[in-house]
Design a protein that fits this description.
about 425 residues, alpha/beta, 2 domains, binds nicotinamide-adenine-dinucleotide
């Protein structure tokens, strides 16, 4: 089995990594400490993350702390082959862009062959594989960290079914992750990915955003800023959360967006973007109602939000127009364009570059510090755990500091007042 696409790409990958390092001051600070303290000495970390430059800097940070790294991608399309080549001389890398499903799973299996003590996952495919068919590699695992909403949802379902064998930090659910990464990171990189792939104008277009969670609300706000008429699509369900689709629909409405169901939005939209973490959010009846030339993109974790097999079935022909754009020629004569095969439009190579570097400096600082906790042998039950508040706040503090901002502490009097029943007068 090949491990990476091409070793000759390493110098280009090194240049990408250097640019990321220069823009990740929080990880640089953590790396300096790890170099001194070596918290991962003698430990193996197996990783399934989008393998591009920011991830490379996280992996170098863990390696500087003494970890042996085995890295694969969490998605068949998102590896930056240049970065994978540069990293492959420093650690075990099994990743390239454009993998088949079986190649993808053989790479996940290869990183488990490293017998990890700590696992980092994005979407839960690696942790799921470890529990399903690779229990031979589970005994020494101290714990794991999960990067995204979909992965945390799957882990909670595993825990509920009594199937989770070790503790997992829900890095996604830290405030300094979803507030910044899911909202601002996904927004900027999704808009950039669509523009890079299509070179089309957003101003004046009707953009339909499905899902008004952290990702969807960021995308909607950035699209509005570019002059789009934004419609938000939600559903009447809580999916077991406190903040239901109804609450989110209301907050979209009060933020100034039109809100409706997908049935109503389908004939109006020019550009559709899904960010729900759910399945078949855009389906056959919606494709039938869409305008000729409608453009579809997905920012949710898996390529299941747009029902591509149904769209293919409705088409007499599917043509690759250019990199990242496929034209579905429908039997009735309309054309619908799908970006990046319905996979993460902000990450799918070559047009997707992923989140802005500074955003990942925060998200990966959380990952590095949670891995350190696991390495130090913090004993936790086999369950999904929140990121400790001290780590969440420390990362926010360091991110502010990297921008030259230090906030004052409240006075003793203010602290006392905030905790008392004292009257206002
Ligand atoms: N592209 C990226 O880089 C990136 C980054 C972070 C998260 N994600 C992924 O994006 C997805 C969304 O993440 P989030 O943090 O915003 O999740 P979230 O749970 O906060 O929000 C999802 C929203 O979608 C709504 N929804 C569910 N089914 C729907 C349907 N059929 N139609 C319309 N709306 C529906 C829900 O009511 C909810 O409000 C997840 O898959 C997550 O893993 C992607």
């Amino acid at each position: 089995m090949p491990k990476i696409k091409d070793h000759l790409l390493a110098p280009e990958g090194e240049a990408e990594l250097e640019w990321a390092r220069l823009n990740m001051p929080v990880l640089a600070q953590i790396r300096q400490r790890f170099e001194r303290e070596k918290p991962f000495s003698g430990l193996t970390v197996s990783v399934a993350l989008h393998l591009e430059k920011k991830t490379g800097v996280l992996l170098e940070t863990l390696a500087a702390g003494g970890a042996r790294i085995f890295a694969a991608s969490c998605n068949p399309t998102t590896t930056d082959d240049r970065v994978a080549a540069a990293l492959s001389s420093k650690m075990e890398v099994f990743a390239w862009a454009g993998q088949s499903k079986s190649e993808y799973y053989s790479c996940l299996n290869a990183v488990l062959d490293g017998r990890p003590h700590i696992v980092i996952d994005d979407g839960c495919d690696l942790i799921n594989l470890l529990h399903a068919s690779r229990r031979d590699a589970i005994a020494q695992v101290k714990g794991a960290c999960e990067e995204t909403t979909t992965g945390v949802n799957r882990l909670r379902a595993m825990q509920k079914a009594g199937k989770l064998s070790f503790p997992v930090f829900a890095v996604n659910d830290a405030y300094s992750k979803f507030l910044l990464d899911n909202q601002f990171g996904t927004a900027q990189s999704t808009v950039a990915g669509i523009m890079q792939a299509t070179n089309k104008l957003v101003g004046g277009k009707t953009v339909v955003v499905a899902g008004y969670g952290w990702c969807g609300r960021g995308i909607a706000s950035r699209m509005k800023g570019l002059g789009a008429n934004v419609i938000v699509v939600e559903v009447d369900s809580s999916f077991g959360r406190k903040e239901s689709g109804l609450h989110r629909a209301l907050s979209a409405l009060y933020d100034g967006f039109r809100v409706m169901g997908m049935d109503e939005a389908a004939p109006i939209g020019d550009i559709f973007i899904t960010a729900t973490g759910n399945k078949n959010v855009i389906d056959a009846p919606h494709f039938s109602k869409m305008k000729d030339g409608a453009l579809l993109a997905n920012a949710g974790h898996f390529n299941i939000e747009i029902n591509e097999p149904a769209l293919r079935k409705m088409s007499k022909k599917v043509e690759k127009i250019k990199e990242n754009i496929d034209a579905y020629r429908l039997k009735g004569g309309k054309t619908i364009y799908l970006l990046s095969e319905g996979r993460l439009v902000n990450l799918a190579r070559p047009s997707g570059q992923g989140h802005p570097i500074e955003i990942m400096d925060g998200s990966f600082a959380l990952q590095a510090l949670c891995c350190e906790l696991l390495a130090k042998g913090k004993r936790l039950p086999a369950a999904v755990h929140p990121v400790p508040q001290e780590i969440d706040e420390e990362v926010a503090r360091l991110l502010l500091k990297s921008q030259g901002i230090t906030l004052p502490k409240p006075t003793q009097q203010q602290k006392k007042y905030a905790e008392s029943f004292e009257e206002g007068t």
